[in-house]
Amino acid sequence: MMKRTINKFPSRLQRFLFFIGLSLLVLTVLLVTPKCSSDAKQPAALLEVKKGNFEVTIPGFGEMQAVKSTPISVPVQARGQQTIAWIAPENSFVKEGETVIRLDDNVYKERIQTEQFQITRLNLEIEDKASQMDKEKSELQGQLKITAIEKDLADVYAARDESLFPRNKIIEDKINLEYLEEKNTHYRVKQSKLDQKVKAEMQLLELRRRTHQVQLDQYKEALKSLEITAPHNGLFIYEKNWRGEKPRIGMTVWAGRKIGKLPDLGIMEAKVFILESEAAGLKADLPVEVVLDSDPDKVFKGKVTNIDTIAKPLEQESPLKYFEVKVALEKTVKEIMKPGNQVKVLIFVQQLNDVLSVPNQALFFEHVEGKDEAFVNLKSSSGFEKQKVVIGARSLTRTVITEGLEEGRKILLGKAEERD
Fold first, then answer.
1. Would you identify the CATH topology of the domain 75-104+226-263?
2. What average pLDDT does the segment 324-335 reach?
3. Distance CA 189, CA 11 (A)
4. What is the pTM of this model?
5. Among the listed residues 173, 172, 170, the one whose alpha carbon sits nearest the alpha carbon of residue 161
6. Confidence band (pLDDT; 50, 70, 90) for 337?
7. Where are the chain's structural domains?
8. 235 closest CA partner among 89, 101, 103, 333
9. CA dihedral of residues 161, 166, 170, 176 (deg, nearest 10)
10. What burial class does residue 295 get, using C-beta atoms within 10 Å of its C-beta: 0-12 exposed, 13-18 middle, 19+ buried?
11. What is the distance between the alpha carbons of residues 67 and 271, in angstroms, rounded to a whole number?
12. CATH of the domain spanning 46-52+352-418
């Protein structure tokens, strides 16, 4: 007996009819849905107007820093380019006289050896020159002595009496005496010039030796300065350069560059950054609330003390610019306030108490008799009615109403055409 075979898969026609039906269903839903959504109105969002506090604030962020601190810089004696060979860990406590930075000393050691070699060479040259000059002086003095003896003998035995000696002999002896006199004068002049020459050459060598000695002393002093120590006890904090980089081993630095600081933790302040586009109304003496990221439950009071005149980007290629602002705190809590602690601040540009204010989306404006007038949609027994109001201070989210609206009334948020 043959068993009937059951085809578990739908035929090609069945599949075609199924897809046709599914497509018609989706099309129907798409055609009906917009009509339903356009016919249904959103329920009205009402707000009961109440008096309260109105604030215009500017947010900011930054870090804690000491009001006073002792800078740790590359000594001016370390001329030219220097390299950091070692640096104490950041936020480490250091004692007075303890090394905090050590600069690479290989270059200065080589320079010191070079200068010492030059000084040694010049000392030998001076000794050799002095010996040579002494020899020349000795030879010249010997010539002077011989000439003097010759002159004395010639003067004693010179023929002068014409009755005893021939005239030619007298003339020869006279010429010989004059020659010896000139010879003696020549050696004396030569001796004087030799003295001047010796003095000048020795002075030149001494000057060259003194120059190298000055260089040697400077390099030795610079070598000592490469070991930078703490001027007093304190917490060692790194100082960023103009690129925002902190010092590190192998970094190149120049004389006078500020590498770190030892802050006075007794009085702290906040260095914060305010986005240029949000800085409207920013000025000195505005009240500030400061919150530490490490202790967000506590709020500290302060005020703006200093504002940079020019907004600058925090990163080189960033299009955003910020004003740097200093905030003085009413009190310093040493236990939780440390240099570098991240903070968030609110600067209060305006604070009003017990005033009526509404969300900005509840207001709409119309041009009436040449000027813009403000209105709200006021809830009434018959629905909503347009109510003219006079506005005061405004923030990014709310506006103060000075006239035209009473406390306890309900107003519409959003567009009037969306009301029930």
1. OB fold (Dihydrolipoamide Acetyltransferase, E2P) (2.40.50)
2. 94
3. 138
4. 0.57
5. 170
6. very high
7. 46-52+352-418, 75-104+226-263, 106-225
8. 89
9. -140
10. middle
11. 10
12. 2.40.420.20
Looking up tokens 């009001």 gives: 67
The rounded distance, in Å, linking the Cα atoms of 171 and 178 is: 11
Structure tokens at 256: 């006078």
> Which tokens in the block code for residue 241?
């350069």
* Dihedral sign, Cα of residue 237, residue 240, residue 245, residue 248: negative
Q: CA nearest 405: which of 382, 418, 386, 383?
A: 386
State pLDDT tens for residues 345-364. 999 998 889 999 999 988 99
Residue 284, classed as helix, strand or coil, is: coil
How would you label 99-131 residue by residue, b for 16+ Cβ within 10 Å and e otherwise?
A: ebbbbbbebbeebbeebeebbeebeeebeebee
371: Cα separation from own chain's centroid: 51
Indicate the burial class of 405 (C-beta count within 10 angstroms; 0-12, 13-18, 19 or more): buried
Q: Which tokens in the block code for residue 194?
A: 């030799």
What is the rounded radius of gyration, in angstroms, for the C-alpha atoms of the chain? 50
**Two structure tokens written together for 267:** 């009085």
Angle between helices 167-225 and 106-157 (to 10 degrees): 170
Task: Compute the half-sphere exposure of residue 224: CA atoms within 13 Å on the CB side of its CA.
Answer: 5
CA–CA dist 308, 59 (Å, integer): 16
Distance of CA 369 to the CA centre of its chain: 57
Q: What is the DSSP letter of 312?
A: B
Q: Picking from 53-62, 132-141, 326-335, which range would have the lowest pLDDT averaged per residue?
A: 132-141
Nearest to 326 by CA among 313, 345, 312, 341: 345
User: What token pair was written down for 211?
Assistant: 């120059």
